[in-house]
Each structure stands twice: as structure tokens, then as C-alpha cells.
């Protein structure tokens, strides 16, 4: 009589083999919410900048034809860039909301958008082509309004980042004080005043030289102003990040 085989023993898992971890749906949802918030903020900022571009124009009435051509060309390029940026942000936001984007992809996109938004809001350093403006005020007659006008002219001409003295310009910056005692966001500025701006150098320089504009006003106040165009301007001053008290990203 032959011996019969008993029940087969259960197989032992191979050494070193582990069960694959399941993705954490809660972590994915958190990443998605963070990315949506960053993209919404970037999109909103781009739209605000675009609206501000189209609202400018009062100081261009007395501009020379050559200056107008230069400024218009720069603004057209900037408008095209902003429109493309807005379209890209909308497409990215739609894609990541409607698809199951991986955590790595979502984090990479969030980091890229956060860096771009940080440059616009002044919370990260920025570098690029631009201009360096120096205002001398030997008679202490340059008022804070004139520095504000210079910043507004640069913004209207397409500048993307600004620094006045040691202070980074942000969306909530404000000039105060009086001629000879100018303050910016509570920091006292001393002449000569130095302004750094990143953007298309010829366009920025032309905007400040419009007849009856910033340059002429500085001269009437007894001061002088020089504008240097450079292929590389570094803006290192930073603004503290602010947490909104009431506003929240609206989910679609």
C-alpha cells in the first residue's frame, strides 16, 4: 500500500516581498486643494495686473510719437504674455481638477506656480532685465507722490517686480511723509532715491521720459534723474507673506 499525499501546505510568501501600499486618498485631496488655491491666486493676480494695464493712459497724452510706439510695443508684448499666462493657468486648473493628477505632478505644478506668484507679490527674490533709476534731490523738494508716480509709470509700462531703496513694492505698498522725509511702508527713504524694476528695459525707460512726466517733474523740483538699462537686475528685498483674514480660494 502506498502512502497517500496529505493536504498541500500553504505557500510561504517569498522573502522580501511586501504588499503594495495603497495611495492615500486624503493626502491626494489635500494636495489638490493646495494646488487649486495656488492656481486661483495666481490667476486672480494675473487678471488684476491685466486690468491695471488697460486702465493706464492719462499721462500718455503729451508723449512723443516715438515714445508712444516704444511703449505700445512693450505693452502689446506684455499683454500677449499675460493673456497666454491666464489661458495656461485656466487650462492647468481645469486639467488638475478634472483628472486624477499624481501627487508628484500636483506638487511640482504647485511649486512652479507658487514661485511665479511669489515674484509678483514680493515674497521671493527676482532677477531679469530691467532698469535702475536714481533720483537726486539736493533741495529736498521731491514729494512722496512723485515716487509713487514713478512706480505707477513703471507698472503701466509692464514692470513685474520693483524695489525702492531697501523696500520691495507690493500690492499694498504706500508712500507717506513729505518732501525730504519720504517713507515707504513705514521705512524712511533717503536721497538719492534708487528704484529697481524688472521688465522690458527700453519700454520702462521710455515711460519715465514722457514729456511732462516723471523726469520733467523731478527737474522742476530741482532734482536730477538718471535711468540705466541693464540685461540683469536683481531685486533681493522681500515682503512678508500675509495670510488673508477673510478671503479663501473658491472651489469650482
Automatic annotation (TrEMBL):
Pfam families attached to this UniProt entry: DUF881
Residue ranges of the TM segments: 31-51
Residue segments, region Disordered: 1-26
Coiled-coil residues: 72-99
Claim: Coiled coil is one of the keywords in the record: yes
Domain of life per record: Bacteria
Keywords: Coiled coil, Membrane, Transmembrane, Transmembrane helix
A GO cellular-component term linked to this record: plasma membrane
Similarity comment: Belongs to the UPF0749 family.
Name assigned to this protein: Uncharacterized conserved protein YlxW, UPF0749 family
Source species of the chain: Nakamurella panacisegetis
Amino acid at each position: 500500500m502506498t502512502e497517500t499525499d496529505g493536504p498541500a501546505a500553504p505557500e510561504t510568501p517569498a522573502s522580501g516581498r511586501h504588499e503594495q501600499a495603497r495611495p492615500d486618498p486624503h493626502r491626494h485631496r489635500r494636495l489638490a486643494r493646495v494646488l487649486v488655491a495656488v492656481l486661483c491666486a495666481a490667476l486672480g493676480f494675473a487678471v488684476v495686473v491685466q486690468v491695471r494695464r488697460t486702465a493706464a493712459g492719462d499721462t500718455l497724452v503729451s508723449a512723443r510719437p516715438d515714445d508712444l510706439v516704444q511703449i505700445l510695443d512693450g505693452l502689446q508684448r506684455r499683454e500677449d504674455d499675460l493673456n497666454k499666462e491666464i489661458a495656461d493657468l485656466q487650462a492647468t486648473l481645469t486639467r488638475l481638477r478634472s483628472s486624477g493628477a499624481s501627487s508628484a505632478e500636483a506638487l511640482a505644478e504647485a511649486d512652479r506656480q507658487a514661485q511665479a506668484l511669489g515674484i509678483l507679490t514680493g515674497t521671493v527674490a527676482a532677477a531679469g532685465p530691467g532698469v535702475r533709476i536714481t533720483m537726486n534731490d539736493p533741495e529736498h523738494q521731491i514729494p512722496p507722490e512723485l515716487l509713487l508716480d514713478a512706480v505707477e509709470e513703471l507698472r503701466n509700462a509692464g514692470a513685474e517686480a520693483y524695489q525702492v531703496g531697501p523696500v520691495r513694492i507690493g500690492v499694498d505698498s504706500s508712500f507717506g511723509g513729505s518732501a525730504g522725509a519720504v517713507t515707504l511702508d513705514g521705512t524712511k527713504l533717503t536721497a538719492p532715491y534708487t528704484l529697481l524694476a524688472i521688465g522690458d528695459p527700453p519700454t520702462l525707460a521710455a515711460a519715465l521720459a514722457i514729456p511732462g512726466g516723471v523726469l520733467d517733474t523731478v527737474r522742476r523740483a530741482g532734482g536730477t534723474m538718471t535711468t540705466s538699462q541693464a540685461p540683469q537686475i536683481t531685486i533681493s528685498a522681500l515682503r512678508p507673506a500675509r495670510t488673508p483674514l477673510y478671503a479663501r480660494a473658491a472651489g469650482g
